[in-house]
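Methods — Computational structure assignment.
A single polypeptide chain was analysed. Its primary sequence is given first, followed by the predicted tertiary structure written as C-alpha cells.
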Amino acid sequence: MESGNYVSWVNGDAETLEPASLDRMAESGAENESVMANHSVALEETKESDSVDSCELPEVRENGSEEKDEASEKDLSDSASTDNTLEDSSEFTGRPIIVGSKGEEPVSPFRVASEGVAAHRDEDITAESWRAHWKHVFVLSEAGKPIYSRYGNEEALSSTMGVMMALVSFVQTGDNIIRSIYSDDHKVVFVQQGPLVLVSVSRTLQSEQQLCQELLYVYYQIISMLTQTSITRIFERKKNYDLRRLLAGSEKILDSLLNLLDSDPSFLLGAVQCLPLSSSLRESLSQTLQKATTSNLIFSILIAKNQLVTVVQEKAVIEDTRLDPVDLHLLLNLIGASSAFQAGEIWTPICLPKFNPNGYFYAYISYLDPECTVCLLLLSTDKEAFYAVSDCKRRIEESMRTQNSLQAISAGLESHSYSASQVGVTDLRHFMYKALDIPENHKQLTQFTSPEIEAPYCSEGERERLFDLYRYLHSRIHSSMRPLKLIYHVAEKETLLAWVTSKFELYTCFSPLVTKAMAITAITKLLRWIKREEDRLFIRYPPKYSTIPNPAKGPRGSKGGAEQTDNGFLSVL
C-alpha cells in the first residue's frame, strides 16, 4: 500500500482509498465503511449470539440490614427462575457466606482484597510512566462505561474507553467485528463477550491469539464472580449500568490474574502443574478425600503453593463433563489474591465458567497447615451444606495427621520440585512438557510438568526473557495461519526446540551450541525419563467417589422451583 493511502472495509472487502476520497466520505457520513489510518485492522464476520440457557442460581443469605437501592436499581435484580423469565426474585444487595474460625468475626476475602490495592490505581494517565507500561488491559460495557483498567483510574480513562467503544461500534455498522489494530510498536486486540468489551494494548511480542486468550481469562474471572446470566440480564435492563458497583473490591483479583498471565506457564499451556509426589503418597491422599464425602459434594481438591496435589470428582459429574484447567486457574488465583482465605474456614459462592457459566458452586476453602501452604477446596451444589462439608474437612485433616501426610507434602515443597540436571541430558537447561494422550473416559485435567528454573536464568529479567521465548515458540506452534509441528530456534544466548504431536506438547531450552540433531537426540532421552517418572509427575487415573444427591440439587442446578439469586461477592456494597 502506498504512503498516504488508507484501508477501508466495506462489508468485509478491502479497497485502497486516496485521501481525497476520505474527505468525501467524512462529508457524506458514510456508515458502512471503517477507516483506520496507517493501521491494519483484522475483522471477522459477526455471528448471532446463542441464547443463554436458563439455570438455577443460588440464594445467598443476607447478614444484617442493607440499605435498599432506588427503584431504578431494583430493576437490575437477577432472576433464578428456570423458565428464564425476567421476574425479580432478589436484590443485588446481599453479602457472601463467609464463615470465620470459631469465636472469630467472619472476614470477607473481597474486602481484604480491596485493601491496599496497588498504587498504579492512582497513576496519572497523562504521565509518560503510564504510557511506558508494556501492556494495558481495559474492560468496558457496550455503552462505553468503564469497568476495569490495569493501570490508572477508570474514571480518568472514561473518554479513552469511549473512543474504544466508538471503534467497535463503527466497524459493527458494516456487519463486521473488529479484532485487532496493528501499528509500528503497538498491538490493540479486542474481544467482545456479550455486553462486555475487553481491550488489550500491548507492546510485547505476544501474538494476537495469545492476547485474546488473556482477555478471555479476565472475562472468565469476572464471570466467576457474577455469572454470565446475571451480567446479561443486568445490561438487558439498563444498558449504561455501572458494573463496578458489583465488582468493587475485586480489582486486586484481576490484577493478580494479569500478573500470573505474564509469568505462569500454566496459563500459556492451558494446563495444570502437579506437585511431584510419590505415587503411593498421592494415592493415599486421594483415598482420604474419597472417604470424606457428603451429599452434593462435587469436587474435592488439594493444592500446595498453586500446584495440584490431587483432585477427586463425583462419578455422576465426570460422566457428563470434567473440571477444566481454566476453572482451576481461576480458583487458584482467587485464593492466592487475598490473605483473607488464611483466616479460617471460608464458605462462598463461586461460578466455574467453563463448567457452567450460568450457575454457582459453593466453595469451602481452608488451609490445613499453620504456614498456609496446603489448601483444601471442596465444591458443593448445596448452599446449606457448610457444616456437612466442614465435617468432611475435619475427617480429612485427622486422616492426614495420622498418616503424617502434611509433613510429606511439605517435604515435597521444600525439595523445590526437580531440576533439569536430574534428567541426565547434557546441555538441557529447562523444558515444559504437556501431556495430551489422556483417555477421554478418564475425564482428567490437562497437566504439564516443568523443572525449577536455574542458572543462567536466576534474575527476574532473564526468567522473563526465557518465558518470552517460550511464548514465541507457542505462537508459532499454534498459529492460525500456518501452524508448525517442529521448531528449531537459535536465540541470542540459547537454542530452543518445540515439538507437538498427538501425545504431547514439548518446549525445550538448551545451551547455545546445541545443533538440531543434538537437540532431537536429547529430546528422545528426555521423553524416556518423563515416561519413567510419569507416576510421580502426573495424576494418571483420576479418583472418583459417589454421593447421595439431594433430588432438588444437582451440579447443573435444579430443574424445578426458583431460588433467589445473588453473586456472593457484594460485601463492599
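Note: The longest strand covers residues 297-304.
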